[in-house]
Design a protein that fits this description.
Layout lengths: L4 E5 L17 E4 L7 E9 L5 E9 L12 E8 L12 E4 L6 H6 L2 H10 L2 E5 L13 H4 L3 H4 L4 H18 L7 E6 L1 H12 L6 E5 L14 H13 L1 H18 L4 H8 L9 H17 L16 H11 L6 H13 L18 H7 L23 H12 L7 H6 L4 H8 L3 E6 L17 E6 L17 H30 L1
Parallel strand pairs: 1-2, 6-7, 6-8, 8-9, 9-10, 10-11
Antiparallel strand pairs: 3-4, 4-5, 5-7
């Protein structure tokens, strides 16, 4: 069986959702201030009893790299000054680099940033990524996403310039030019944090880049890495579970080819409507397995879906428990229901439901965020398929009228020979990763220098360290966060020492 070639992988933390291009079943994708420039919204939103923020809007430049007189757009950001030591004491500023989605969702899921603020006396700011959430150019999402011309300024480079301009204006209007800035980000936001530290070292003195696959481009890492990690996460829990999933793809195809086979599959998997093809069902299952690997957290969570602790273990228990006397399809349904229906509240499943709306990321993946992947039949529980750039480019052109630039990210931000480059030109970056996370395979997993550090945990999943602390945190997670705090404190202390030395001169 040959698997359709994947197009887009969402990064997230973010908003990982599989959606299909309706035009072609041959493609699939997977899936942080002055009065003159601020609009104040008199609303304080409560994240929980400990986190509060004010919503503000900054009139942002649409194109930072030209001098065209284009209309500005309101960039939303969240800000909290409750614990800030203030400009006179050079109180630090913690900035989370917004990802591909609503910034409030990222704020809710980045408790580590909020929890550090009191001990550091830090101001906290969560700027929203352009073209996501409420930060829409051209007045509305419909207009911003209208065509290639209106989407042209949705790039990582423009987003980083947004953050640089915003923080510069904010510091100026708070008389806080001397306050050091620490960047945070997870997944795509982690990539942005690392790249911003490299591109704008005068803006930020350090960055925590959690689960940031900055090497998932071109041929820097093996193309089968992502799906091999997903597969290994299942195999470590149960070899029989791994084998059942691996066998299921052929069974789905075989059943679907029979008379009324698609109806039988729809009934077996409790789908809300008719099944158009086995491809749609396989894509839905692929989604569940990949996201389970990303959020295989050691405690219950509702990051993507309400899930138990170590959800892959629970999925495999369900699959293995029904092995005797139960056909493969029923086994798979029982297992995948842990992801899609752990609470038991869903009566049926809608394969076409895309609540997050990933067309913004589709555009980014069709322009500069080209992350090639494949699946190997010998090491993966997924069907074999090979990356096909020609098909990828054709699909992008059909949908957006653009051709991808697969080498642009490495041209703009680097990636090849990254060890020597980071060692020579980089400093004050933490790359944190959990090896259960399939995106870890595209990140930096070893120390580059004393100040470009990799913190790697065997049992960690997708930017688990950025989540709020809980009573159920294992010792290794507590230790990882303590290491991050120590490094960040060191950066800030060194900055203060340097500032005082210069001032005394």
């Amino acid at each position: 069986m040959t698997k359709p070639k994947p197009l887009f992988h969402t990064l997230l933390l973010i908003l990982p959702i599989i959606a299909l291009f309706p035009s072609s079943p041959e493609s699939r994708r997977l899936p942080f201030l002055g009065k003159h420039s601020l609009l104040h919204k008199p609303t304080n939103n409560i994240i929980n009893s400990n986190y509060t923020y004010e919503i503000r809007y900054f009139q942002q430049t649409l194109d930072h790299f030209s001098f065209d007189d284009r209309p500005k757009f309101p960039q939303r950001y969240l800000i909290n000054t409750d614990h800030w030591a203030g400009p006179s004491r050079m109180g630090p500023i913690f900035l989370y680099c917004g990802n591909e989605g609503d910034i409030e969702w990222f704020a809710v899921n980045s408790g580590f940033v909020w929890e550090l603020a009191p001990s550091f006396g830090a101001l906290v700011i969560f700027p929203e990524h352009r073209y996501y959430g409420e930060s829409m150019p051209y007045g509305s999402r419909d207009e911003a996403y209208k065509n290639a011309s209106t989407l042209a300024h949705l790039t990582a480079e423009q987003a980083l310039a947004d953050y640089a301009v915003l923080i510069t204006d904010l510091k100026r209007n708070l008389s806080a030019e001397a306050s050091p800035v620490i960047l945070f980000g997870g997944s795509y936001g982690g990539m942005l944090a690392a790249w911003m530290r490299l591109k704008y070292p005068h803006i930020a003195i350090g960055a925590l880049a959690a689960s940031a696959p900055i090497l998932q481009f071109e041929d820097i890492v093996p193309l089968e890495t992502f799906y091999n990690i997903v597969s290994n996460d299942f195999r470590r829990e149960s070899t029989s579970c791994f084998d059942t999933i691996k066998k299921s793809w052929a069974v789905i195809t075989s059943v679907g080819q029979k008379v009324n086979g698609l109806d039988h599959l729809a009934e077996t998997f409790h789908l809300c409507g008719k099944l158009k093809s086995t491809y749609d069902l396989s894509n839905w299952l692929d989604s569940a397995y990949s996201y389970l690997a990303m959020v295989d957290y050691p405690y219950p969570s509702d990051f993507l879906m309400p899930l138990p602790a170590y959800p892959i273990k629970e999925v495999c228990k369900e699959i293995d428990r029904s092995a005797d006397g139960t056909n493969v399809l029923d086994q798979i349904f029982k297992g995948v229901s842990v992801y899609y229906n752990y609470t038991g509240e869903a009566d049926c499943f809608d394969l076409d439901d895309d609540p997050h709306g990933m067309s913004g990321w589709d555009w980014q993946a069709c322009t500069e965020m080209v992350m090639p992947m494949s699946s190997d039949k010998n090491s993966s529980m997924f069907p074999e398929w090979a990356y096909n750039y020609t098909s990828y480019a054709e699909e992008c052109f059909n949908n957006f009228g653009v051709k991808p630039r697969p080498t642009w990210i490495t041209t703009e931000f680097g990636g090849h020979d990254y060890k020597s480059v980071l060692k020579t030109f980089g400093s004050n970056i933490i790359f944190s990763n959990g090896l259960l996370d399939p995106w870890s395979g595209g990140s930096v997993l070893e120390n580059i220098s004393d100040s470009v550090v990799a913190l790697v945990t065997e049992e960690g999943a997708h930017h688990l360290d950025l989540r709020a602390a809980t009573a159920d945190d294992p010792d290794w997670l507590v230790a990882q966060r303590a290491s991050e705090v120590k490094l960040i404190k060191g950066w800030i202390d060194d900055y203060y020492t340097t500032k005082k030395s210069v001032f005394n001169m």
